[in-house]
Design a protein that fits this description.
Blueprint: H1 11-45, H2 53-66, H3 73-84, E1 87-92, E2 97-100, E3 114-116, H4 146-165, E4 170-174, E5 180-184, H5 208-227, E6 236-237, E7 251-252, H6 263-280, E8 288-293, H7 306-345, H8 362-410, H9 418-446, E9 454-457, H10 458-475, E10 479-483, E11 489-492, H11 494-511, E12 517-525, E13 528-535, H12 561-564, H13 569-579, E14 583-588, E15 594-603
Parallel strand pairs: 10-12
Antiparallel strand pairs: 1-2, 1-8, 3-8, 4-5, 6-7, 9-11, 11-15, 12-13, 13-15, 14-15
Helix pairs in contact: 1-7, 5-6, 7-8, 8-9, 9-13, 10-11, 11-13
Length: 614
């Protein structure tokens, strides 16, 4: 047993220290967040609103007037927030977030500061807003293309020169739609004064783009007027206020009702306003709720009272106590199975100690893995002992025979005639075969088994194996059959493959009685070639099938080398096939023979025609 771990390296102590640190940081962060939140709430309740609220509203209304949605408003929102030091948030009318300038999620105020709707602007706070409450920057289909902008600017320049010749000083400006207009700079001139020479009407004539938009507006307005039984015959026109330079709302140019302030006049104006909003709706962003918060500067300090400090300290202490208790319980549950695993691992290897699996978590998985490792180690130890015993048995028998005959010949009891020498030679061959098989297995286990792959035909390979064992099969009165219908190619080492099939053939001849049949077959299955050696022998019991390819395993329990071989042939078959990237299987039933199947990678072969491309 190793000495106990020092306390500072104990998993329990480290878990406790970690939990205490986490709990302390959590309490400190929670307290700081509570102070900050309370400070901001007090500041909001005190009504400390900055003077640029209306400017924020104006900028966001301009964005909504020039964009069909709020998709890319986040950059504008952050720029305004950075400049003003305010938190700015936009939500839909249903309180779904659109954009927020805050770096982290914070609760919004209970009430929105304003509604951003370019089609319903407060005319008292939005400079240049139309009387219908439409933001002047919401031009929609009235926006002039470049060619028309240049044409209108040229007409404005001509009129400006004409005004100058008549002693009227003007300044050329441009509307959000791109239309140029003139502003009279002479305070003595009457509003809207136009010299007779300059009144050609070209500057105020709608362009093609404006005319299309006005025609659409006329149709929408006419539909509304028809529903209210108000009939006017002229289309809607677009004018510019000559005194202020702002665009007046389009009005109906037809004969107005006699009563300018009557029901029909109000109906006509309402229809124009409604049609104007319907026309601009696809070109502006939908209405949004604006929430304004305070910045991070000049925040008043929040001083906690003694009672609140006691409460915070009490809650922090309670959280720490609960954290330590819970961590201690959890750590004990974690450490207990680990200590059991450590104690089991420190036991003598011959005992093969298992540990109980009491949980289904990671520790339980580790315990099950430890038990499985112990079982594998126990099986490998048993196999090692059995292998050593089998090797000693296989080597002892021929060596004993050779030694006995040599001692008899040395003592002069028998003459070293050819029959004795032949017997000694047979025993030496058996001994050499066992040693060669052990060398093959050692090379396979060490990964030094070299393969020289090439493309070989399956039918020729089976014929070669059958020819090599035909004499032995005839002596045992066994019929050999080669069954290959197609020309199949496989990618393998021909020497090692013949050795594999030769071991299977020797095994089949050894266990097939006189008058039986051994069949060698080859067929293609997916991308592999299946080579089968089927016999009509006594078969293998179902409980013995999992051990067929084990080393030194024999079907005969008597372990006779004369009938059962060395017990290494099938183990060598499995290693050779695995080295080729294939598999070796067996299917058998008692009294019905056995079928050994070897699956190896196939090859196209040099004489296989290549399919023409489709």
């Amino acid at each position: 047993m190793s000495r106990a771990l020092p306390l500072r390296r104990s998993l329990l102590v480290r878990l406790l220290i970690t939990s205490v640190l986490i709990a302390g940081c959590s309490v400190a962060a929670t307290a700081w967040l509570a102070v900050q939140t309370t400070t901001r709430a007090i500041r909001e309740e005190q009504g400390q609103v900055l003077a640029d609220d209306m400017d924020i509203l104006r900028q966001l209304s301009g964005y909504a007037a020039t964009h069909p949605d709020w998709t890319h408003v986040a950059g504008t929102l952050r720029a305004i927030s950075h400049r003003t030091g305010r938190r700015i948030a936009l939500t839909t009318t249903g309180r779904l977030p659109i954009a927020d300038s805050a770096d982290h999620r914070m609760s919004l105020p209970l009430k929105a500061a304003a509604t951003v709707d370019p089609l319903r602007t407060d005319t008292d706070t939005e400079p240049g807003a139309q009387l219908a409450g439409i933001d002047p920057r919401a031009v929609g289909p009235y926006r002039l293309p470049t060619a028309e902008r240049l044409k209108v600017a040229k007409l404005a320049t001509v009129r400006q020169h004409c005004f100058a010749r008549n002693g009227v000083h003007t300044r050329m400006e441009r509307l959000p739609s791109g239309r140029s207009y003139l502003t009279n700079l002479d305070p003595r001139a009457e509003p809207g004064y136009v010299p007779t020479e300059c009144a050609d009407g070209k500057l105020n004539t709608p362009t093609r783009t404006e005319q299309r938009a006005l025609d659409t507006l006329t149709g929408l307005t006419q539909s509304c007027l028809d529903r209210h039984d108000v009939h006017l015959d002229a289309p809607v026109a677009l004018t510019v206020d000559a005194t202020t330079g702002s665009a007046a709302e389009p009005y109906y140019m037809g004969k107005r009702p006699v009563e300018q302030e009557g029901v029909q006049a109000r109906t006509a104006k309402a229809c124009v306003d409604s049609a104007r909003r319907r026309q601009l709706t696809p070109y502006v962003a939908p209405a949004a709720e604006l929430f304004l918060g305070t910045g991070d500067s000049a925040t008043p300090r929040f001083n906690m009272s003694t009672a609140n400090k006691v409460k915070v300290a009490g809650v922090a202490g309670l959280v720490l106590a609960l954290t330590v208790a819970a961590t201690a319980l959890m750590a004990l549950r974690l450490v207990r199975p680990l200590r059991a695993l450590t104690a089991a691992a420190q036991q003598s290897p011959e005992q093969h100690v298992r540990v109980p699996v009491t949980t289904h978590d990671e520790t339980g998985v580790l315990a099950r893995a430890f038990n499985e490792l112990t079982e594998r180690r126990e099986r490998m130890e048993a196999q090692r002992k059995a292998m050593v015993s089998d090797i000693a048995h296989e080597l002892r028998t021929p060596l004993t025979n050779i030694r006995g005959w040599l001692e008899v010949a040395r003592d002069g009891l028998v003459d070293p005639d050819p029959e004795l020498l032949s017997s000694l030679h047979d025993e030496a061959v058996i001994l050499q075969r066992v040693i060669d098989d052990l060398q093959e297995l050692a090379a396979a286990d060490a990964g030094t088994l070299r393969l020289h792959r090439e493309e070989i035909r399956a039918d020729e390979l089976l014929e070669q194996v059958a020819a090599a064992h035909r004499v032995r099969a005839q002596d045992a009165e066994i019929r050999l059959v080669v069954d290959v219908t197609d020309t199949l190619w496989l990618n393998a080492d021909p020497v090692r493959t013949r050795q594999t099939l030769g071991n299977l053939m020797s095994n089949a001849i050894r266990h097939t009685p006189a008058g039986g049949t051994i069949t060698l077959r080859a067929r293609r299955q997916d991308d592999q070639i299946v080579l089968e050696v089927a016999d009509t022998g006594a078969g293998i019991e179902p409980e013995d099938l999992p051990h067929v390819f084990d080393r030194f395993w024999r079907a005969e329990k008597s372990r006779s080398r004369r009938t059962g071989g060395s017990g290494l042939g099938l183990a060598i078959v499995r290693h050779l096939v695995t080295a080729h990237g294939g598999t070796a299987t067996v299917s058998s039933a008692a009294g019905a023979g056995s079928v050994f199947a070897v699956r190896l990678p196939c090859a196209e072969g040099p004489d296989v025609p290549i399919a023409a491309p489709v």
